[in-house]
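Structure first, sequence second, as always.
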């Protein structure tokens, strides 16, 4: 007999007690595509989704979920109540990670299957005026384009763009709109996108 997850809304605080340093790494892709972000413990999981989207370079056009300590968080669908999806807007990062969680999963675009491993690298003290808002502090390599077909599609996309004699070269060039730099990452652009969320 399955038990319903606890849906009681935790008490909200405005002032963070802790800052989490998270390493977000896209799975099934080489070389590594990753971002390192700082988020306050008061940030809701719904807003953490937006911060990850902005830091990675995704466009927030598909569904997502978090899997943390065996529980699934996201946007519940009333047509699928048996999915036991907890409402991400009701839980903060501090609620679900607390002092002990070391790693969790973030999935984006269930069709393409972009799975991210998120590692809690550090729990930092808050320094008012310095680290109490979300920010990206490091990153490596470009985010794949939306709707490219997941990790296998991305590899095919890169191969087609690299090789002018590839049968799909012109189609991919036109679809993307020109050249694509898989090594490209801009810390400034990541933080600009995150600032737009505030």
């Amino acid at each position: 007999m399955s038990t319903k997850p606890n849906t009681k809304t935790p008490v909200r605080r405005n002032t963070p007690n802790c800052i989490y340093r998270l390493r977000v790494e896209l799975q099934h892709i080489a070389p590594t595509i990753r971002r390192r972000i700082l988020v306050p413990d008061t940030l809701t999981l719904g807003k953490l989704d937006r911060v990850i989207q902005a830091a990675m370079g995704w466009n927030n056009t598909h569904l997502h979920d978090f899997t943390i300590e065996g529980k699934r968080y996201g946007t519940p669908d009333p047509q699928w109540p048996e999915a036991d999806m907890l409402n991400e807007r009701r839980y903060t990062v501090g609620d679900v990670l607390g002092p002990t969680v070391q790693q969790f999963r973030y999935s984006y675009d269930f069709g393409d299957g972009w799975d991210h491993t998120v590692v809690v690298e550090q729990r930092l003290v808050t320094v008012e005026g310095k680290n109490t808002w979300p920010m990206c502090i490091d990153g490596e390599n470009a985010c794949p384009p939306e709707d490219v077909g997941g990790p296998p599609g991305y590899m095919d996309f890169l191969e087609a763009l690299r090789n002018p004699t590839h049968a799909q070269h012109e189609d991919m060039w036109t679809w993307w709109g020109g050249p694509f730099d898989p090594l490209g990452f801009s810390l400034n652009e990541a933080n600009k996108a995150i600032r737009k969320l505030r």
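Margin note: The helical segments are 45-56, 93-97, 150-162, 169-176, 187-195.
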